[in-house]
Amino acid sequence: MKRPLPFSRALVALWLLVVAFFVVWYHGETVPQPLPDGPARPNADARLPCVSYSPYFRAGVTPLDPNTQIPPEWIDLDLQALAKITRCVRTYSVDQGLDRVPEFAARHGLTVWLGAWIGRDDKKNAQELARAIALANQYRGVVTRLIVGNEVLLRREQTPENLARYLEQAKTQAQVPITYADVWEFWLRYRGALLPHVDVATIHILPYWEDRPQPIDSAAEHLFRIRTMARQVLGAIPIAIGETGWPSAGKQREGAVPSRVNQAKYVRDVLSLAATFNWDVNFIESHDQPWKRALEGTVGGYWGVLNTAQEPKFPLTGPVAERDTLWPPLTAALMGAVLLPLIASLRRWPVTLLGAALGFTAFWQWEHAVVAYRNAWEWGALGATGVVALVVAVALAARPTYRATPPDWLTVATSYLLFALAVANVWLVVDGRYRDYATCLYLPLALVAPLRHWSVTLTERLWSAIALLCAAFVWLKEAMNGQALLWFLTTAAITLSLPRARAASSQATRVAPTAPQ
């Protein structure tokens, strides 16, 4: 005679829903999405007009380390690869070995928007600017403009008046056009101080990073509106779009979803606009930059048109799929579906279903870790959180006796997960701009939370309340954000099960038979 299922129908329905969600999600990512091709220009150069180049995409290399020096052979190799996809590169500094960029750009037939980094230190600024002016004059046929400062006003590292002095110095000494680059709002705000000292106005338009993030379907239209408004406000001066682009991975902001398909669509849409209106455009950026995750979260590292292996992330024509194959996540799900019934010694289809859901979740955790974790501490702490959640889920599903009388390690593990969930939610409220929704770490606990029947401590109830309130706040602030909704639902599934668990525990205590004395 078969044992009765130790799971409610509602819980089994949840597992079925989660497995179906994963199947639809991962399968959908393998289906090539039809996208408009880039502009058709017969007998014309089909490469990108210009891309921001930073050689810091290699493992462990960062401009934040003042001792970093880029070997010239790296620059040579990088520009050789970039010459296949672009006609021009933009740089941001002539320090850390980047003063060799014009030399190698000339070798590979590229032009350069040469950048001089302007920060708080006036002494360093003077050295940087003098070197940049000398390079611009030395490579006049290669350097097509000198960009004196990048988002200096946005970072509030110089006043408009001080910045104007640097611009005027460059304008009187350099033999190439002079410009300054900043986000469009700051350029328009301080145009009175900037316009007399530049030959070109270089504005950054990044629909993903706007205060009101733009969905991909309206992103190019937004760029067109801002570019048109800038022309009306700035008058007849030439305008360059110094940075525009779309991330391929990271946190969703309202309706703005990072993805490979969306990145391809945005680049193609902007190329078509640039060709139609003869715009001067630079895309950010040449390569994915893992070091930027330290400043901007996961999304900061994935704006490149090439990955860190210098491979194109998408074509400029034809359909584009988010992933190449379904087999890796499907294999993980099949492994979970096979292993959990063996561990539980309960070969029933709901257990197989839960195993598949946990397998999909484990694969999601791994993919998230690869793109998001920035250092050994995050691999250890966040990786351990995901593993603990999986172990707790397996223990509660496989050992019915644990549900009311758990071993000490299981009570500690579940308490830790509730604490970590509360902390993660608080961080999303107080400092959430660059923080991911780490739903994959806590989904295993959400799948089995109703199986917990031991008593809930006052501290756990406090953590639960904090987590739920913060998750609701985060989601309601971005009600159209699918990632925020999944995060809220996962938090709610965990926290709202706790009162029921306490009630179940109390009922079990009342009906438990008394042992003979």
Automatic annotation (TrEMBL):
Report if keyword Transmembrane helix is assigned: yes
Principal localization? membrane
Picking any one GO biological process from the record gives: polysaccharide catabolic process
Task: Give UniProt keywords alphabetically.
Answer: Carbohydrate metabolism, Cell membrane, Cell wall, Cell wall biogenesis/degradation, Glycoprotein, Hydrolase, Membrane, Polysaccharide degradation, Secreted, Signal, Transmembrane, Transmembrane helix
Q: Which GO terms describe its cellular component?
A: plasma membrane
The regions listed as transmembrane in this protein's record are 351-367, 379-397, 409-428
Q: Identify the domain of life.
A: Bacteria
Q: Is this entry keyworded Transmembrane helix?
A: yes
Localization per Swiss-Prot or TrEMBL: Cell membrane; Secreted, Cell wall
Q: Which GO terms describe its molecular function?
A: hydrolase activity, hydrolyzing O-glycosyl compounds
Q: What does this protein do?
A: Glucanases play a role in cell expansion during growth, in cell-cell fusion during mating, and in spore release during sporulation. This enzyme may be involved in beta-glucan degradation. Active on laminarin and lichenan.
Q: Which PANTHER family match?
A: GLUCAN 1,3-BETA-GLUCOSIDASE, GLUCAN ENDO-1,3-BETA-GLUCOSIDASE BTGC
What protein name is recorded for this chain?
Endo-1,3-beta-glucanase btgC
Species:
Hydrogenophilus thermoluteolus
